[in-house]
Protein backbone atom coordinates (compact mmCIF):
# COMPACT_ATOMS: atom_id res chain seq x y z
CA UNK A 1 0.00 0.00 0.00
CA UNK A 2 1.40 3.39 -0.94
CA UNK A 3 -0.18 6.83 -0.58
CA UNK A 4 1.31 10.16 -1.57
CA UNK A 5 4.79 8.71 -1.86
CA UNK A 6 4.63 6.50 1.24
CA UNK A 7 5.17 2.74 1.37
CA UNK A 8 4.01 0.40 4.13
CA UNK A 9 6.30 -2.39 5.36
CA UNK A 10 4.62 -5.22 7.27
CA UNK A 11 5.79 -8.40 8.94
CA UNK A 12 3.61 -10.92 10.75
CA UNK A 13 4.09 -13.11 13.80
CA UNK A 14 1.64 -16.00 13.76
CA UNK A 15 0.98 -18.43 16.61
CA UNK A 16 -0.67 -21.74 15.74
CA UNK A 17 -1.80 -24.28 18.33
CA UNK A 18 -0.89 -27.72 17.02
CA UNK A 19 -3.47 -30.48 16.89
CA UNK A 20 -2.34 -33.23 19.25
CA UNK A 21 -4.07 -35.40 21.85
CA UNK A 22 -1.85 -34.17 24.68
CA UNK A 23 0.13 -31.08 25.64
CA UNK A 24 3.69 -30.26 24.64
CA UNK A 25 5.61 -31.46 27.70
CA UNK A 26 3.09 -33.49 29.72
CA UNK A 27 0.25 -35.94 29.16
CA UNK A 28 -2.65 -33.63 29.97
CA UNK A 29 -5.39 -33.51 27.33
CA UNK A 30 -4.98 -30.84 24.66
CA UNK A 31 -8.68 -30.09 24.28
CA UNK A 32 -10.59 -26.84 23.80
CA UNK A 33 -13.75 -25.98 25.72
CA UNK A 34 -13.35 -28.16 28.82
CA UNK A 35 -14.22 -26.67 32.25
CA UNK A 36 -11.45 -24.36 33.54
CA UNK A 37 -8.41 -25.90 35.22
CA UNK A 38 -9.41 -29.53 34.59
CA UNK A 39 -6.65 -30.45 32.10
CA UNK A 40 -3.73 -29.74 34.41
CA UNK A 41 -0.98 -31.64 36.22
CA UNK A 42 2.21 -31.03 38.19
CA UNK A 43 4.18 -30.39 34.98
CA UNK A 44 1.99 -27.70 33.41
CA UNK A 45 1.44 -26.13 36.85
CA UNK A 46 5.24 -26.04 37.42
CA UNK A 47 5.42 -27.99 40.66
CA UNK A 48 8.97 -28.37 42.04
CA UNK A 49 11.01 -31.32 40.79
CA UNK A 50 8.95 -32.21 37.69
CA UNK A 51 10.60 -32.66 34.29
CA UNK A 52 9.23 -31.99 30.79
CA UNK A 53 8.96 -34.76 28.18
CA UNK A 54 8.59 -33.56 24.55
CA UNK A 55 5.51 -34.58 22.57
CA UNK A 56 6.71 -36.52 19.51
CA UNK A 57 3.47 -35.86 17.60
CA UNK A 58 3.79 -32.10 18.16
CA UNK A 59 7.34 -32.10 16.82
CA UNK A 60 6.20 -34.03 13.73
CA UNK A 61 3.28 -31.65 13.20
CA UNK A 62 5.61 -28.66 13.43
CA UNK A 63 8.00 -30.16 10.87
CA UNK A 64 5.09 -30.87 8.49
CA UNK A 65 3.94 -27.25 8.76
CA UNK A 66 7.48 -26.05 8.07
CA UNK A 67 7.70 -28.25 4.98
CA UNK A 68 4.30 -27.07 3.72
CA UNK A 69 5.37 -23.44 4.13
CA UNK A 70 8.63 -23.96 2.24
CA UNK A 71 10.96 -23.81 5.25
CA UNK A 72 14.26 -25.62 5.52
CA UNK A 73 14.39 -28.24 8.29
CA UNK A 74 17.77 -28.19 10.07
CA UNK A 75 19.28 -31.46 11.23
CA UNK A 76 19.71 -30.01 14.75
CA UNK A 77 17.63 -27.64 16.85
CA UNK A 78 17.43 -26.80 20.51
CA UNK A 79 14.94 -25.71 23.16
CA UNK A 80 15.60 -22.56 25.20
CA UNK A 81 14.15 -20.95 28.29
CA UNK A 82 12.52 -17.57 27.70
CA UNK A 83 12.45 -15.89 31.09
CA UNK A 84 9.63 -13.56 32.10
CA UNK A 85 7.14 -13.26 34.94
CA UNK A 86 3.39 -13.05 34.39
CA UNK A 87 0.43 -14.77 36.09
CA UNK A 88 -0.25 -16.96 33.03
CA UNK A 89 3.25 -18.46 33.29
CA UNK A 90 3.69 -20.45 36.53
CA UNK A 91 7.33 -21.45 35.84
CA UNK A 92 8.37 -17.79 35.31
CA UNK A 93 9.87 -19.00 32.02
CA UNK A 94 8.52 -20.43 28.78
CA UNK A 95 10.11 -23.37 27.00
CA UNK A 96 10.67 -22.03 23.50
CA UNK A 97 13.42 -21.88 20.87
CA UNK A 98 15.81 -19.01 20.24
CA UNK A 99 18.66 -19.17 17.73
CA UNK A 100 18.21 -22.78 16.60
CA UNK A 101 14.56 -23.19 15.52
CA UNK A 102 13.00 -26.44 14.35
CA UNK A 103 12.10 -24.84 10.98
CA UNK A 104 14.49 -22.41 9.32
CA UNK A 105 14.14 -19.87 6.54
CA UNK A 106 11.67 -20.41 3.71
CA UNK A 107 9.59 -18.77 0.99
CA UNK A 108 5.79 -18.99 0.81
CA UNK A 109 4.16 -18.50 -2.60
CA UNK A 110 0.83 -16.62 -2.62
CA UNK A 111 -1.32 -16.62 -5.80
CA UNK A 112 -3.19 -13.33 -6.28
CA UNK A 113 -5.42 -11.73 -8.97
CA UNK A 114 -2.83 -9.06 -9.73
CA UNK A 115 -0.01 -11.58 -9.89
CA UNK A 116 1.48 -13.96 -7.35
CA UNK A 117 3.84 -12.67 -4.68
CA UNK A 118 6.25 -14.32 -2.28
CA UNK A 119 6.70 -13.87 1.45
CA UNK A 120 9.98 -14.89 3.03
CA UNK A 121 9.71 -16.76 6.31
CA UNK A 122 12.39 -16.09 8.89
CA UNK A 123 11.65 -19.09 11.10
CA UNK A 124 9.02 -21.32 12.64
CA UNK A 125 9.81 -22.52 16.12
CA UNK A 126 7.99 -24.76 18.56
CA UNK A 127 7.13 -23.73 22.12
CA UNK A 128 4.48 -24.10 24.81
CA UNK A 129 1.47 -21.83 25.07
CA UNK A 130 0.71 -19.78 28.18
CA UNK A 131 -2.41 -20.11 30.32
CA UNK A 132 -5.47 -18.02 29.50
CA UNK A 133 -6.04 -14.83 31.48
CA UNK A 134 -9.68 -13.80 31.90
CA UNK A 135 -10.21 -10.18 32.92
CA UNK A 136 -13.56 -9.32 34.50
CA UNK A 137 -14.99 -5.84 34.05
CA UNK A 138 -12.53 -4.55 31.45
CA UNK A 139 -13.63 -3.24 28.08
CA UNK A 140 -13.70 -6.12 25.61
CA UNK A 141 -12.25 -8.50 28.20
CA UNK A 142 -8.95 -6.58 28.35
CA UNK A 143 -6.82 -5.93 31.42
CA UNK A 144 -7.26 -2.16 31.21
CA UNK A 145 -10.11 -1.14 33.49
CA UNK A 146 -10.81 -4.67 34.72
CA UNK A 147 -11.93 -5.30 38.30
CA UNK A 148 -10.25 -8.69 38.68
CA UNK A 149 -8.49 -11.43 36.74
CA UNK A 150 -8.54 -15.22 36.88
CA UNK A 151 -6.36 -17.81 35.16
CA UNK A 152 -7.40 -20.96 33.28
CA UNK A 153 -4.39 -23.29 33.06
CA UNK A 154 -6.01 -25.69 30.59
CA UNK A 155 -4.17 -23.87 27.79
CA UNK A 156 -0.81 -23.84 29.62
CA UNK A 157 1.59 -26.16 27.83
CA UNK A 158 -0.42 -26.49 24.61
CA UNK A 159 1.95 -27.17 21.66
CA UNK A 160 2.44 -23.88 19.84
CA UNK A 161 4.23 -23.05 16.60
CA UNK A 162 5.35 -19.45 16.13
CA UNK A 163 5.82 -18.46 12.49
CA UNK A 164 7.73 -15.24 11.80
CA UNK A 165 7.76 -13.57 8.37
CA UNK A 166 10.20 -11.10 6.91
CA UNK A 167 8.78 -7.59 6.33
CA UNK A 168 7.67 -8.46 2.79
CA UNK A 169 4.03 -7.35 2.92
CA UNK A 170 2.90 -3.88 1.91
CA UNK A 171 -0.84 -3.61 2.57
CA UNK A 172 -3.57 -4.92 4.81
CA UNK A 173 -5.04 -6.76 1.82
CA UNK A 174 -1.78 -8.59 1.12
CA UNK A 175 -1.47 -9.52 4.81
CA UNK A 176 -5.02 -10.89 4.86
CA UNK A 177 -4.48 -12.87 1.64
CA UNK A 178 -1.20 -14.32 2.92
CA UNK A 179 -2.64 -15.27 6.32
CA UNK A 180 -5.76 -16.80 4.77
CA UNK A 181 -3.66 -19.04 2.51
CA UNK A 182 -1.26 -19.91 5.34
CA UNK A 183 -4.22 -20.93 7.50
CA UNK A 184 -5.71 -23.01 4.66
CA UNK A 185 -2.36 -24.76 4.23
CA UNK A 186 -2.10 -25.64 7.92
CA UNK A 187 -5.69 -26.90 8.01
CA UNK A 188 -5.18 -28.90 4.80
CA UNK A 189 -2.36 -30.96 6.30
CA UNK A 190 -4.29 -31.54 9.54
CA UNK A 191 -1.79 -29.76 11.79
CA UNK A 192 -4.38 -27.45 13.42
CA UNK A 193 -7.95 -26.24 13.04
CA UNK A 194 -6.39 -22.72 13.04
CA UNK A 195 -9.61 -21.17 14.36
CA UNK A 196 -9.12 -17.51 15.27
CA UNK A 197 -12.32 -17.45 17.33
CA UNK A 198 -11.01 -20.27 19.54
CA UNK A 199 -7.53 -18.75 19.71
CA UNK A 200 -5.82 -21.66 17.95
CA UNK A 201 -4.57 -19.12 15.37
CA UNK A 202 -3.36 -15.74 16.60
CA UNK A 203 -1.60 -13.05 14.61
CA UNK A 204 0.33 -9.89 15.48
CA UNK A 205 1.45 -7.41 12.82
CA UNK A 206 4.59 -5.26 12.87
CA UNK A 207 3.88 -2.14 10.82
CA UNK A 208 6.09 0.72 9.67
CA UNK A 209 6.05 3.22 6.80
CA UNK A 210 8.76 4.86 4.74
CA UNK A 211 9.09 7.02 1.67
CA UNK A 212 8.86 5.14 -1.62
CA UNK A 213 12.41 4.39 -2.74
CA UNK A 214 13.90 4.37 0.77
CA UNK A 215 15.61 1.16 1.84
CA UNK A 216 15.87 1.80 5.57
CA UNK A 217 12.97 0.59 7.69
CA UNK A 218 10.90 3.06 9.67
CA UNK A 219 10.04 2.73 13.36
CA UNK A 220 7.62 -0.14 13.75
CA UNK A 221 4.60 -0.60 15.95
CA UNK A 222 2.99 -3.91 16.86
CA UNK A 223 -0.72 -4.51 16.35
CA UNK A 224 -1.99 -7.20 18.72
CA UNK A 225 -5.17 -9.12 19.50
CA UNK A 226 -6.78 -9.06 16.05
CA UNK A 227 -9.23 -11.96 15.96
CA UNK A 228 -10.35 -12.11 12.33
CA UNK A 229 -8.87 -11.74 8.86
CA UNK A 230 -11.10 -8.75 8.17
CA UNK A 231 -10.00 -6.94 11.34
CA UNK A 232 -6.37 -7.75 10.58
CA UNK A 233 -6.69 -6.01 7.21
CA UNK A 234 -8.58 -3.04 8.61
CA UNK A 235 -6.30 -2.67 11.62
CA UNK A 236 -3.14 -2.66 9.50
CA UNK A 237 -4.58 -0.10 7.09
CA UNK A 238 -5.69 2.12 9.98
CA UNK A 239 -2.21 1.98 11.53
CA UNK A 240 -0.60 2.79 8.17
CA UNK A 241 -2.79 5.88 7.86
CA UNK A 242 -2.02 6.89 11.46
CA UNK A 243 1.74 6.63 10.97
CA UNK A 244 1.65 8.60 7.72
CA UNK A 245 -0.38 11.30 9.48
CA UNK A 246 2.15 11.46 12.34
CA UNK A 247 5.12 11.81 9.98
CA UNK A 248 3.42 14.35 7.72
CA UNK A 249 2.66 16.44 10.81
CA UNK A 250 6.40 16.62 11.52
CA UNK A 251 6.36 14.25 14.49
CA UNK A 252 8.02 10.84 14.81
CA UNK A 253 6.51 7.39 15.17
CA UNK A 254 7.19 5.88 18.58
CA UNK A 255 7.64 2.16 19.06
CA UNK A 256 4.56 0.84 20.83
CA UNK A 257 2.04 -1.95 21.08
CA UNK A 258 -1.21 -0.85 19.43
CA UNK A 259 -4.83 -1.96 19.69
CA UNK A 260 -7.35 -1.75 16.85
CA UNK A 261 -10.84 -0.71 17.98
CA UNK A 262 -13.26 -2.46 15.62
CA UNK A 263 -16.17 -0.23 16.70
CA UNK A 264 -14.48 3.04 15.72
CA UNK A 265 -12.01 1.76 13.12
CA UNK A 266 -9.15 3.51 14.92
CA UNK A 267 -5.95 2.40 16.65
CA UNK A 268 -4.58 3.53 19.99
CA UNK A 269 -1.51 2.83 22.13
CA UNK A 270 -1.71 -0.04 24.61
CA UNK A 271 1.81 0.39 25.96
CA UNK A 272 5.13 1.89 24.96
CA UNK A 273 7.92 -0.38 23.68
CA UNK A 274 10.81 2.07 23.48
CA UNK A 275 13.07 -0.50 25.14
CA UNK A 276 13.26 -4.12 24.02
CA UNK A 277 12.54 -6.83 26.57
CA UNK A 278 15.50 -8.90 27.70
CA UNK A 279 14.23 -12.45 28.09
CA UNK A 280 17.68 -13.83 29.04
CA UNK A 281 17.40 -16.86 26.77
CA UNK A 282 19.57 -19.84 27.59
CA UNK A 283 19.47 -23.52 26.50
CA UNK A 284 16.85 -25.62 28.27
CA UNK A 285 18.91 -27.91 30.57
CA UNK A 286 16.14 -30.50 30.98
CA UNK A 287 15.68 -31.28 27.27
CA UNK A 288 18.02 -32.76 24.68
CA UNK A 289 18.31 -31.21 21.19
CA UNK A 290 15.99 -32.30 18.37
CA UNK A 291 17.76 -34.17 15.55
CA UNK A 292 15.28 -35.35 12.89
CA UNK A 293 16.99 -37.80 10.54
CA UNK A 294 16.62 -37.95 6.77
CA UNK A 295 14.33 -40.99 6.86
CA UNK A 296 11.84 -39.21 9.13
CA UNK A 297 11.89 -36.07 6.98
CA UNK A 298 11.30 -38.12 3.82
CA UNK A 299 8.38 -39.90 5.48
CA UNK A 300 6.75 -36.66 6.66
CA UNK A 301 7.26 -34.95 3.30
CA UNK A 302 5.81 -37.88 1.35
CA UNK A 303 2.64 -37.77 3.47
CA UNK A 304 1.83 -34.16 2.53
CA UNK A 305 -1.17 -33.84 0.23
CA UNK A 306 -1.52 -31.22 -2.53
CA UNK A 307 -1.30 -27.81 -0.89
CA UNK A 308 -3.79 -24.98 -1.49
CA UNK A 309 -1.38 -22.66 -3.35
CA UNK A 310 -0.45 -25.39 -5.83
CA UNK A 311 -4.08 -26.42 -6.20
CA UNK A 312 -5.22 -22.86 -6.96
CA UNK A 313 -2.63 -22.52 -9.71
CA UNK A 314 -3.57 -25.95 -11.08
CA UNK A 315 -7.25 -24.97 -11.22
CA UNK A 316 -6.34 -21.89 -13.26
CA UNK A 317 -4.35 -23.97 -15.76
CA UNK A 318 -6.39 -27.18 -15.86
CA UNK A 319 -9.91 -25.74 -15.86
CA UNK A 320 -9.26 -22.27 -17.29
CA UNK A 321 -10.74 -20.58 -14.21
CA UNK A 322 -10.10 -16.93 -13.34
CA UNK A 323 -7.75 -16.66 -10.35
CA UNK A 324 -10.41 -15.38 -7.88
CA UNK A 325 -12.68 -18.33 -8.77
CA UNK A 326 -9.78 -20.79 -8.50
CA UNK A 327 -8.89 -19.30 -5.11
CA UNK A 328 -12.46 -19.60 -3.82
CA UNK A 329 -12.59 -23.25 -4.91
CA UNK A 330 -9.04 -24.32 -4.14
CA UNK A 331 -8.40 -22.83 -0.72
CA UNK A 332 -10.41 -25.46 1.16
CA UNK A 333 -9.66 -29.14 0.52
CA UNK A 334 -13.23 -30.45 0.94
CA UNK A 335 -14.85 -27.96 -1.43
CA UNK A 336 -12.03 -28.51 -3.92
CA UNK A 337 -12.64 -32.27 -3.94
CA UNK A 338 -16.40 -31.77 -4.36
CA UNK A 339 -15.86 -29.37 -7.26
CA UNK A 340 -13.39 -31.64 -9.04
CA UNK A 341 -15.74 -34.61 -8.86
CA UNK A 342 -18.58 -32.51 -10.28
CA UNK A 343 -16.27 -31.22 -13.04
CA UNK A 344 -15.34 -34.80 -13.92
CA UNK A 345 -18.99 -35.87 -14.07
CA UNK A 346 -20.24 -32.96 -16.21
CA UNK A 347 -17.05 -32.58 -18.26
CA UNK A 348 -16.85 -28.80 -17.88
CA UNK A 349 -14.77 -27.10 -15.19
CA UNK A 350 -16.24 -23.62 -15.60
CA UNK A 351 -19.79 -24.95 -15.48
CA UNK A 352 -18.97 -27.00 -12.37
CA UNK A 353 -17.37 -23.95 -10.75
CA UNK A 354 -20.50 -21.85 -11.30
CA UNK A 355 -22.75 -24.44 -9.64
CA UNK A 356 -20.29 -25.10 -6.81
CA UNK A 357 -19.87 -21.45 -5.86
CA UNK A 358 -23.52 -20.63 -6.54
CA UNK A 359 -26.36 -22.78 -5.27
CA UNK A 360 -24.19 -25.37 -3.53
CA UNK A 361 -22.08 -22.90 -1.52
CA UNK A 362 -25.20 -20.91 -0.60
CA UNK A 363 -26.72 -24.15 0.73
CA UNK A 364 -23.58 -24.94 2.76
CA UNK A 365 -23.61 -21.48 4.34
CA UNK A 366 -27.33 -21.56 5.10
CA UNK A 367 -27.20 -25.05 6.62
CA UNK A 368 -23.88 -24.52 8.40
CA UNK A 369 -22.41 -27.74 7.02
CA UNK A 370 -19.29 -28.81 5.13
CA UNK A 371 -19.49 -30.56 1.73
CA UNK A 372 -19.15 -34.04 3.21
CA UNK A 373 -22.17 -33.41 5.45
CA UNK A 374 -24.42 -32.19 2.64
CA UNK A 375 -27.03 -34.53 1.12
CA UNK A 376 -26.20 -33.02 -2.28
CA UNK A 377 -23.40 -35.17 -3.64
CA UNK A 378 -21.53 -34.35 -6.86
CA UNK A 379 -23.37 -37.22 -8.58
CA UNK A 380 -26.81 -35.86 -7.62
CA UNK A 381 -25.80 -32.33 -8.61
CA UNK A 382 -24.49 -33.61 -11.94
CA UNK A 383 -27.97 -34.96 -12.70
CA UNK A 384 -29.43 -31.48 -12.21
CA UNK A 385 -26.70 -29.81 -14.28
CA UNK A 386 -27.37 -32.18 -17.18
CA UNK A 387 -31.10 -31.41 -17.09
CA UNK A 388 -30.44 -27.67 -17.24
CA UNK A 389 -27.85 -27.95 -20.00
CA UNK A 390 -30.13 -30.15 -22.11
CA UNK A 391 -32.98 -27.66 -21.79
CA UNK A 392 -35.21 -30.08 -19.91
CA UNK A 393 -35.30 -27.74 -16.89
CA UNK A 394 -35.18 -23.95 -16.83
CA UNK A 395 -33.04 -21.82 -14.56
CA UNK A 396 -35.89 -20.85 -12.24
CA UNK A 397 -37.16 -24.41 -11.93
CA UNK A 398 -33.59 -25.62 -11.32
CA UNK A 399 -33.59 -23.80 -7.98
CA UNK A 400 -36.69 -25.73 -6.96
CA UNK A 401 -35.05 -28.98 -8.05
CA UNK A 402 -31.95 -28.14 -6.02
CA UNK A 403 -34.13 -27.47 -2.97
CA UNK A 404 -35.65 -30.90 -3.56
CA UNK A 405 -32.19 -32.49 -3.58
CA UNK A 406 -31.55 -30.92 -0.17
CA UNK A 407 -34.93 -31.93 1.27
CA UNK A 408 -34.97 -35.52 -0.04
CA UNK A 409 -31.54 -37.20 0.08
CA UNK A 410 -32.85 -40.26 -1.79
CA UNK A 411 -34.44 -38.50 -4.77
CA UNK A 412 -32.65 -37.88 -8.06
CA UNK A 413 -33.00 -34.63 -9.96
CA UNK A 414 -34.99 -36.44 -12.67
CA UNK A 415 -37.42 -37.87 -10.11
CA UNK A 416 -37.96 -34.46 -8.51
CA UNK A 417 -38.68 -32.85 -11.88
CA UNK A 418 -41.22 -35.53 -12.75
CA UNK A 419 -42.90 -35.58 -9.33
CA UNK A 420 -43.27 -31.80 -9.13
CA UNK A 421 -43.97 -31.14 -12.78
CA UNK A 422 -40.96 -28.86 -13.17
CA UNK A 423 -40.01 -29.82 -16.71
CA UNK A 424 -39.43 -26.92 -19.06
CA UNK A 425 -42.31 -26.01 -21.40
CA UNK A 426 -40.98 -25.90 -24.92
CA UNK A 427 -44.20 -26.49 -26.85
CA UNK A 428 -44.59 -23.41 -29.03
CA UNK A 429 -48.38 -23.56 -29.26
CA UNK A 430 -48.75 -23.72 -25.48
CA UNK A 431 -46.32 -20.85 -24.98
CA UNK A 432 -47.97 -18.76 -27.72
CA UNK A 433 -51.27 -18.91 -25.84
CA UNK A 434 -49.63 -17.60 -22.66
CA UNK A 435 -47.75 -14.90 -24.58
CA UNK A 436 -50.97 -13.72 -26.26
CA UNK A 437 -52.68 -13.52 -22.88
CA UNK A 438 -49.84 -11.48 -21.35
CA UNK A 439 -49.71 -9.06 -24.30
CA UNK A 440 -53.48 -8.60 -24.28
CA UNK A 441 -53.50 -7.98 -20.53
CA UNK A 442 -50.91 -5.18 -20.56
CA UNK A 443 -51.91 -2.65 -23.26
CA UNK A 444 -50.14 0.30 -21.60
CA UNK A 445 -46.81 -1.52 -21.53
CA UNK A 446 -47.33 -2.66 -25.13
CA UNK A 447 -47.75 0.96 -26.22
CA UNK A 448 -44.62 2.01 -24.31
CA UNK A 449 -42.60 -0.82 -25.89
CA UNK A 450 -43.72 0.16 -29.38
CA UNK A 451 -42.84 3.77 -28.57
CA UNK A 452 -39.23 2.73 -28.02
CA UNK A 453 -39.05 1.48 -24.41
CA UNK A 454 -37.58 -1.87 -25.51
CA UNK A 455 -36.33 -2.76 -22.01
CA UNK A 456 -39.93 -3.70 -21.22
CA UNK A 457 -39.23 -6.99 -22.98
CA UNK A 458 -37.92 -8.16 -19.60
CA UNK A 459 -41.23 -7.21 -17.97
CA UNK A 460 -43.23 -9.28 -20.47
CA UNK A 461 -40.82 -12.21 -20.15
CA UNK A 462 -41.24 -12.10 -16.38
CA UNK A 463 -45.03 -12.14 -16.71
CA UNK A 464 -44.87 -15.24 -18.90
CA UNK A 465 -42.49 -16.92 -16.47
CA UNK A 466 -44.80 -16.11 -13.58
CA UNK A 467 -47.79 -17.67 -15.32
CA UNK A 468 -45.82 -20.81 -16.22
CA UNK A 469 -44.18 -21.21 -12.82
CA UNK A 470 -40.77 -20.44 -14.30
CA UNK A 471 -40.99 -23.41 -16.67
CA UNK A 472 -41.24 -21.59 -20.01
CA UNK A 473 -38.27 -21.95 -22.35
CA UNK A 474 -36.81 -18.39 -22.36
CA UNK A 475 -35.57 -18.18 -25.95
CA UNK A 476 -38.89 -19.30 -27.40
CA UNK A 477 -40.76 -16.90 -25.11
CA UNK A 478 -38.65 -13.92 -26.17
CA UNK A 479 -39.00 -14.78 -29.86
CA UNK A 480 -42.79 -15.03 -29.58
CA UNK A 481 -42.96 -11.78 -27.60
CA UNK A 482 -40.94 -9.90 -30.20
CA UNK A 483 -43.20 -11.20 -32.95
CA UNK A 484 -46.30 -9.96 -31.08
CA UNK A 485 -44.84 -6.70 -29.82
CA UNK A 486 -43.16 -5.69 -33.07
CA UNK A 487 -46.49 -6.04 -34.87
CA UNK A 488 -48.87 -3.09 -35.25
UniProtKB/TrEMBL annotation:
<dbReference type="InterPro" id="IPR004413">
    <property type="entry name" value="GatB"/>
</dbReference>
<keyword id="KW-0067">ATP-binding</keyword>
<dbReference type="InterPro" id="IPR017959">
    <property type="entry name" value="Asn/Gln-tRNA_amidoTrfase_suB/E"/>
</dbReference>
<comment type="subunit">
    <text>Heterotrimer of A, B and C subunits.</text>
</comment>
<dbReference type="GO" id="GO:0070681">
    <property type="term" value="P:glutaminyl-tRNAGln biosynthesis via transamidation"/>
</dbReference>
<dbReference type="InterPro" id="IPR014746">
    <property type="entry name" value="Gln_synth/guanido_kin_cat_dom"/>
</dbReference>
<dbReference type="GO" id="GO:0006412">
    <property type="term" value="P:translation"/>
</dbReference>
<keyword id="KW-0547">Nucleotide-binding</keyword>
<keyword id="KW-0436">Ligase</keyword>
<protein>
    <recommendedName>
        <fullName>Aspartyl/glutamyl-tRNA(Asn/Gln) amidotransferase subunit B</fullName>
        <ecNumber>6.3.5.-</ecNumber>
    </recommendedName>
</protein>
<comment type="similarity">
    <text>Belongs to the GatB/GatE family. GatB subfamily.</text>
</comment>
<dbReference type="GO" id="GO:0050567">
    <property type="term" value="F:glutaminyl-tRNA synthase (glutamine-hydrolyzing) activity"/>
</dbReference>
<dbReference type="InterPro" id="IPR003789">
    <property type="entry name" value="Asn/Gln_tRNA_amidoTrase-B-like"/>
</dbReference>
<dbReference type="InterPro" id="IPR006075">
    <property type="entry name" value="Asn/Gln-tRNA_Trfase_suB/E_cat"/>
</dbReference>
<dbReference type="InterPro" id="IPR042114">
    <property type="entry name" value="GatB_C_1"/>
</dbReference>
<comment type="function">
    <text>Allows the formation of correctly charged Asn-tRNA(Asn) or Gln-tRNA(Gln) through the transamidation of misacylated Asp-tRNA(Asn) or Glu-tRNA(Gln) in organisms which lack either or both of asparaginyl-tRNA or glutaminyl-tRNA synthetases. The reaction takes place in the presence of glutamine and ATP through an activated phospho-Asp-tRNA(Asn) or phospho-Glu-tRNA(Gln).</text>
</comment>
<keyword id="KW-0808">Transferase</keyword>
<keyword id="KW-0648">Protein biosynthesis</keyword>
<feature type="domain" description="Asn/Gln amidotransferase">
    <location>
        <begin position="337"/>
        <end position="485"/>
    </location>
</feature>
<dbReference type="Pfam" id="PF02637">
    <property type="entry name" value="GatB_Yqey"/>
</dbReference>
<dbReference type="InterPro" id="IPR023168">
    <property type="entry name" value="GatB_Yqey_C_2"/>
</dbReference>
<dbReference type="GO" id="GO:0016740">
    <property type="term" value="F:transferase activity"/>
</dbReference>
<dbReference type="GO" id="GO:0005524">
    <property type="term" value="F:ATP binding"/>
</dbReference>
<dbReference type="Pfam" id="PF02934">
    <property type="entry name" value="GatB_N"/>
</dbReference>
<dbReference type="InterPro" id="IPR017958">
    <property type="entry name" value="Gln-tRNA_amidoTrfase_suB_CS"/>
</dbReference>
<dbReference type="InterPro" id="IPR018027">
    <property type="entry name" value="Asn/Gln_amidotransferase"/>
</dbReference>
Amino acid sequence: MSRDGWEAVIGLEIHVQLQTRTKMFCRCANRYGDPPNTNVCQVCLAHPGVLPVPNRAAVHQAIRVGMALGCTIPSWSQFHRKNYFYPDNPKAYQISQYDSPLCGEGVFHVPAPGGAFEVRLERAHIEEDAAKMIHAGGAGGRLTGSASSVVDFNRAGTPLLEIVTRPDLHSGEDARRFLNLLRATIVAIGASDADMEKGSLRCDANVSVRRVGDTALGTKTELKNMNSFRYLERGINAEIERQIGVLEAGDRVRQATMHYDVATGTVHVLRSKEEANDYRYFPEPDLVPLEPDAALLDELRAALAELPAARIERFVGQYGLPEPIAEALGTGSELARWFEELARLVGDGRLAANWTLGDFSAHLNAAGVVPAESPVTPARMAGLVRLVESGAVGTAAAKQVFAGLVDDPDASAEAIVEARGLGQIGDEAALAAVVDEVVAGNPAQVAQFRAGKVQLLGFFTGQVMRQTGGRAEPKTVQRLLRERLDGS
